[in-house]
Amino acid sequence: MKSLSPVDQLFLWLEKRQQPMHVAGLQLFSFPEDAGPKYVSELAQSIRDYCCPEPPFNQRLTRRFGQYFWTEDKQFDIDHHFRHEALPKPGRIRELLSLVSAEHSNLLDRERPLWEAHLIEGIRGRQFALYTKVHHSVVDGISAMRMGMRALSKDPHERDLPPVWAYKPEKKQRSLPSNPVDAMSSLARLTAGVSKQVATVPALARELYKVSQKAKTDPNYVSIFQAPDTMLNQCITGSRRFAAQSFALPRLRKLAGTFNCTINDLVLSMCGHALREYLIGQNALPDQPLIAMVPLSLRKDDSAGGNQIALILANLGTHVCDPANRLRIVQASVKDAKRRFAQMSPEEILNFTALSMTPTGLNLLTGLAPKWRAFNVIISNVPGPREPLYWNGARLRGMYPVSVVLDRIALNITLTSYQDQLEFGLIACRRTLPSMQRLLDYLENSVRELEIAAGFK
C-alpha cells in the first residue's frame, strides 16, 4: 500500500460529476504499408493479451482515515480498461473529435485502476487512433508524455511492442514505512521539510509586497487578483468539447526569431488573439486583459510518477488590438515571472505558487469567493519527441493532449511538440463556451496577423 502526495490527493478531492479530473492523449497513426484489412483488429487482440499491468496501471484506490492510498487490484479486468471501437461513417476527424469529447466527459471508475485506452479504427485515409486517459492523481503532463513515449519506437520495423500499461516502472516507488526505524526516518525528513517551508515566509512576504506595489503603477503587470470576470469563468457542466490542430514549428520559429521571443511567448500571444476574437464574437470581451495560468515543470530527474509543477500568471494582452504590441505585453509578463522564480529556492517557488493559487483553490473547493480570481484560462506546453515514432509499424502522425476543465475555468489549452509540429489540444465545457472550435480558426488568424506585422506577407 502506497500513500498519495498532498497534491495527488487534491486531484481526487476536486473531482465531481461536472469536473472529471483525468488527463488524456489522442495519438493519430497511419497504417504500415504492408498492413492488411484486419490490421487494427489483429492489433487489438495482441494488446488485449497484456492483461497483467505494471504499476501504476494495476493500482486502485483505497481510503483509510480520510486519506487515499494505492493498492494492487487483485481482480483486474482488461476488458474494462481497453476498448476497441470504430468511428461512424464517413470517419472524418470531426467524428473522431466528437468521440473523444464524449469519452472525456465520463468519470473513471474509482473501484478500478484509474485509466482507460480506446483503440479507434474507421478513420479516413488508412488511419487509426489511440485515446488514452489517466487520472491526474496518477500522472502529470510531463510524466504522462514520458509514459506514452516508452510504448513507441524509432524503428518502423519493430513489432510486438507492448502497450504502455505493460512496461515496468523505470524507478522504484517509495513505499510506506514498514518498521519503526523507517517510520522515524520519514518523520525526520518531514520535520526537516516543514522547517524549510517556514523559512520561506520572510522572502515570500517581501515578494508579495513588491508585486502589489508594481501592480499599482504598471497596468500590464500581473498580480494575484487581477483576472477579470469573463464567460470563461462561469460554473461548468460535465459535458466536454474537444478541438485539435497542428501548426508547423518552422513557421513559428521564424516568427519567434523576428520578434526576438520564445515559442512559448508566441503561443501565449496566439491564444490571447484567439480568445479576444472569440469573446468579441460572443459580445463578452472585458476591458481588462485575460490572465493565463501557465504550468512550469520543476522536474529535474527522469521520474514518471506524481506531480512536480509550479505555476506562473501571464498577461495575454486581450485588451489590445495590435498583434505585435500584444506579443510584447505577453513577453514582458513571462519575463517578470521567470525573473521572480530565478531568485527563489524550490521551497519558495512552491509556496509562492500555492499562495498565488489560493483564491482559485478556495473557489474550487468551496465556491465561496467567485470574484477572487487569479486567472481566466489554463495554457500548458508539454515538450514532445523530435524524431518520428512508430507503434508496431504504424507511424505516429499527430499527438494531441486532452486536459482538465475546472469549475469557473471552462477552457484548457494544452499543446505539445512532435517533430516539426506544434499540436494544440483545446478542451472546454461545451455549454459554457458554445462553438468553442472557432478558436482554431482564430489561432490560425493570429499567426497570419503576426506574419503581416513582421513583413512576411
From TrEMBL:
The keyword Lipid biosynthesis applies. Its EC number is 2.3.1.20. Residues 4-267 form the O-acyltransferase WSD1-like N-terminal domain. GO terms for biological process: biological process involved in interaction with host; glycerol metabolic process; response to hypoxia; response to nitric oxide; triglyceride biosynthetic process. Pathway: Lipid metabolism; Glycerolipid metabolism; triacylglycerol biosynthesis. Residues 306-450 form the O-acyltransferase WSD1 C-terminal domain. One of its GO terms (molecular function) is diacylglycerol O-acyltransferase activity. It catalyses: an acyl-CoA + a 1,2-diacyl-sn-glycerol = a triacyl-sn-glycerol + CoA. One of its GO terms (cellular component) is plasma membrane. Keywords: Acyltransferase, Glycerol metabolism, Lipid biosynthesis, Lipid metabolism, Transferase. Pfam families: WS_DGAT_C (PF06974), WS_DGAT_cat (PF03007). Belongs to the long-chain O-acyltransferase family. This is diacylglycerol O-acyltransferase.
